[in-house]
Design goal:
single chain, 129 residues, 22% helix, 43% strand
Length: 129
Amino acid sequence: MSLAAPADLARAFAAVWAARDAEALAALFAEDGDFISLTGGAAEGRAAIAELVAAEFAGAFARARLVTGRVRVRPLGPHAAVVLQRFVLSGLVHADGSDAGRLGTVLAATLAATPQGWLVVAAQFVPEA
């Protein structure tokens, strides 16, 4: 699932998260994309990203919801951009099943323009400092 513009990443990421669609989330990435998740998990390539995210959706993020916050898009020329998206993540679950509360997060992604549209080549989804 390529994007028409880098600014479209935040809503697309939140939508596939809400749908718990690991394959669609991985499709936002280039075939050889890299992803570091909130859990510290790292994946290289769409298949590995989908596997990592599917496991997280079945575990700690089973009830998690994302609310979009501020976004900043920094063009790096006509074919690359960096997107810094803040989210509030709620509905997190501890290992014992108890509610873990809310967490401010940042998705930092580097995107590249491709013939099919914009794709994430590398992203980190981390707690906000």
